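Lecture notes, unit on binding sites. The following record was shown on slide 14. It pairs a sequence with adenosine-5'-diphosphate.
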Amino acid sequence: TELAQGTTASAPGDTELTRPAPAAVEVRDVHKWYGTHRVLNGVDLTVRPGEVTVILGPSGSGKSTLLRVINHLEKPEIGHVSVNGELIGVRRHGDRLKELNERTILAQRSRIGFVFQNFNLFPHLTVLDNVAAAPVATGRLGGEQARELARELLDRVGLADKSGAYPRQLSGGQQQRVAIARALALRPGVILFDEPTSALDPELVGEVLAVIKDLARTGTTLVIVTHEIGFAREIADRVVFIDGGRIVEQGPPSEVLDRPRHERTRDFLAKVL
Ligand code: ADP
Ligand code: MG
């Protein structure tokens, strides 16, 4: 089963004596509903450390909700999620077996980066302080160390010269690169992206995708919701197609994008390509 694969699969070269690292993200039989509206209907997903997973699907299919469940912003009615081997709330058919306290939730959330469609930068803080704020707020770094790290990260996303600017002075593409630097500042085990380029003018999409590609190359674990199919083909280890709150199919891009097995996947790709 999926669960068995998720917990016991060995990479080539593993011996019986070495344990595989825990999955970066493990989603098991997650159901989420609002009143009578069923948004996620039994989702299973395993993301291994260093893997890049691209999630595709029509509007309203549950993609954002899935990311929000992984990041603790929503609780599943049924099922469980673990991130880096730590359980994030467990529910079985309505019976809550374990409830995490708010402190544990905040600690776990601070190990997950989240990059939103609309950047969500702090408008009243400089670019440097936007990136430095979280490590200070979580008590991980002192102010000077955090600013040093922020300068390094801004350099990495090509914005070393913008550290004193305010978000409103930047283009959308630059703001999104700041948001990525801010996510990196917490040294997260995984970064979730929810349509990171869909609010951008077309000519600004490339600079943001280039930064994400650089992260992928350096082994950061990424889960990306996007409609950029060419980008998905280039970057994804695995493509997951979701429709109606269910994973319809998943696999390497060469399968899901080039030889989709399901009618609904083919319909979707025909519309976005
Ligand atoms: P996607 O990101 O794939 O477009 P979403 O996860 O945002 O889809 O939404 C899936 C469905 O859940 C939609 O029908 C949406 O209207 C509904 N939904 C999302 N969040 C809420 C909420 N807080 N309350 C009620 N319905 C919601
Ligand atoms: Mg969405």
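Take-home: The radius of gyration is 19 Å.
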